C-alpha cells in the first residue's frame, strides 16, 4: 500500500494538514489500514524533501498545511497510470510458511492450514460485517470488496494446499 501516493491523491483535492490527511485516508479506505499520525508526518517530510509537496502556511487554527506541487501532480498521474506489478508487493508470508511446513517434514501441515483457514474465515466475516455497516461511500466499499475477494481467494488456495498435501501423503 502506498501511503505516499494516497496522501498525494488527497492533497490533489486541495491543501490539508496532517491530522486531516489521516482522517480522510482512513475514511477513503474504510479504516481497514489504520494510519499512525507519526507516519503521516514522516511521509509528508519525505514528500517535501522530494519536492512533491510544499508547506502551504497555516490554517486559521495555526495548523501547518501542505499543498501538492506540480512535480507531485506528475508523480500522482504516473502512479495512477502505472499498473502495480507482482514484484512490487512484499513476499507472501503465508506461502512461505506453508512451503517451510511442507519442506520441514516434522510440521503438521494440516494443522498449519487449519489455523490459517480459521483466521481467514474470521477476517472474511469481519470484512463482510464492515461492508454491511459501511457508510463511507464507493471508495470504502471497493476497499472492503478487495479485502473480501482476497480472503475468498486465500480460502480457495488453502483448499488447494490441503488437497495437494493429502494426495502427496497418500501417494
UniProtKB/TrEMBL annotation:
Q: Which InterPro entries match?
A: Tscrpt_reg_PadR_C, Tscrpt_reg_PadR_N, WH-like_DNA-bd_sf, WH_DNA-bd_sf
- Keyword Cytoplasm listed? The answer is no
Domain Transcription regulator PadR N-terminal span(s) in chain numbering = 7-77
Q: Extract the Pfam families matched here.
A: PadR, Vir_act_alpha_C
Gene3D superfamilies, A to Z = Winged helix-like DNA-binding domain superfamily/Winged helix DNA-binding domain (1.10.10.10)
Domain Transcription regulator PadR C-terminal: start-end pairs:
91-164
> Which keywords does the record carry?
DNA-binding
The GO molecular function terms of this record are: DNA binding
Ribonucleoprotein in keyword set: no
Query: Any idea what this protein is called?
Result: DNA-binding PadR family transcriptional regulator
Amino acid at each position: 500500500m502506498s501511503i505516499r501516493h494516497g496522501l498525494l491523491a488527497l492533497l490533489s483535492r486541495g491543501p490539508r494538514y496532517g491530522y486531516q490527511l489521516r482522517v480522510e485516508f482512513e475514511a477513503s479506505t474504510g479504516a481497514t489500514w489504520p494510519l499512525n499520525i507519526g507516519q503521516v508526518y514522516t511521509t509528508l517530510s519525505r514528500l517535501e524533501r522530494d519536492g512533491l509537496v510544499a508547506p502551504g502556511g497555516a490554517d486559521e487554527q495555526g495548523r501547518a498545511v501542505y499543498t501538492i506541487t506540480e512535480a507531485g501532480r506528475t508523480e500522482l498521474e504516473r502512479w495512477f497510470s502505472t499498473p502495480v506489478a507482482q514484484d512490487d508487493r512484499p513476499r507472501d508470508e503465508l506461502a512461505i510458511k506453508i512451503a517451510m511446513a511442507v519442506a520441514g517434514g516434522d510440521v503438521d501441515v494440516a494443522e498449519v492450514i487449519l489455523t490459517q483457514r480459521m483466521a481467514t474465515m474470521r477476517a472474511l466475516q469481519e470484512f463482510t460485517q464492515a461492508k454491511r455497516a459501511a457508510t463511507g461511500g464507493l471508495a470504502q466499499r471497493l476497499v472492503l470488496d478487495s479485502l473480501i475477494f482476497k480472503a475468498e481467494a486465500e480460502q480457495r488456495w488453502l483448499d488447494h494446499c490441503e488437497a495437494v498435501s493429502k494426495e502427496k501423503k497418500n501417494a
